[in-house]
Amino acid sequence: MIHRKRGRAPASAALAALLTLSAAGCAGGGVTGTPGGAGLRDPYFPRLGNGGYDVRHYALTVAYDPATRRLDGTAEITARATQDLSSFNLDLAGLTVHGVTVDGERASVQRAGHEVTLRPRADIEDGATFRAVVRYSGSPRTVTDPDGSEEGWLPTADGAVALGEPTGSMAWFPGNHHPSDKAAYTVTVTVPEGHQAVTNGLPGRAVTRGGRTTTTWRSAEPMASYLATLAVGRFDVTTIRTPAGLPVVSATDRTVTAKAAPLAARVPELLDWLMEKFGPYPFSSAGVIVERAGDSGYALETQTRPVIPYDQFTPGILVHELAHQWYGNSVSPASWRDMWLNEGFAQYAEWLYAEEFEDRPAQESFDEAFADEANWAFPPAAPPTAADISGPPVYDRAAMVLHKIRQTVGDEAFSGLLRGWAAEHRHGNASTDDFTAYVEEETGRDLTALWDTWLYGEDKPARP
Ligand code: TRP
Ligand code: ZN
Fold first, then answer.
1. Were both Cys, which of 30, 202, 225, 331 would link to 425 (CB 3.0–4.6 Å)?
2. How many angstroms separate the alpha carbon of residue 327 from the centre of ligand 2?
């Protein structure tokens, strides 16, 4: 099997909180808040994301010039406070912050590492909806992951592409960058005339003025920030509507269009097939972005519109990334420890594709994965370090877990589980415990032995 990915608040916050206490007291009617957490204690990335609020909507206005590699951005973040807040954090790596307002009033801002702390004039009451606006600019950085691969902002031959799994989206916009805080997005992007910019969701009309082209894209359904993408370059963009009315907007780098177009045209057919397996498609648009080889070293299931470099643009990988729209994108991991729920299902979709279209039973894929020692390095539900969350067991051994469930409960019950799991947590987040409880509940079986051996076991079982 090919593995896809080869390729705390500053000390002054306490003082600030005290000052706010007296200020709020004077204002009368105000609440006395405390600082929101500077991280969500993810098992692998404890400082990722922020506590004290829940983002509802990001309105990002971004201009990018490939010639200078400069990005100018404004992020309008609409959020709901989940505690009385004196200050709260956003994650942003690099770039310069020019000004910040909260509910239209200037707020103070402090930066430490990737934490940006915003302190509004008045504390925000638990449950209140507020709007933070951050103006920023600079040359966005490429982030190197714990496993050595590159994400964040990747300059390409003709522009750039943003990839954000697991932490790279903070390289191009400030936000609550943990998959547990999903939100709707509106992205307005401006590029030099002659370039195209493609992101998630549905585009409005492109307007060209003064040598620059601006388009607004909307993603109505909730999206984890790691699934946001922005591809700037010279693309052929096609829009079709499926017979069921789903808009499919695809972009192929102009140098690969001739070769990539036939497979790109299969997106509607593959989605129809996946809908039979997994249930209704969860989003209101679809498509694919095909970059030239080397522009991105690996594929990513960016929401509604995966990014795939041409050298990896195969039916198997396309099916894998489209399957993530159900598993990973609609049903998102509760934490980065739950990665196997993304990759195991996407890998299993490849096995199902091989079973139905390539005359290769899933059992054969299982046997090959079972024989590969790389898949036994660690249990899929417990990668030892952050560098392992994209390791072989998270893909193939996780798919083996699903195959063991299928063997145990039978094909019919298994296909009910695939659809049911996607329905149960549609547009939400789910953990490994949610999954094992769901399967046991639905099937009425105690599957402790299966979990202990296949999901959590350190050792390779004697035989499958
Ligand atoms: N999710 C991607 C895929 O399967 C691969 C990937 C890219 C990944 N970056 C990652 C997996 C970071 C885990 C962590 O197509
Ligand atoms: Zn994947």
1. 331
2. 9
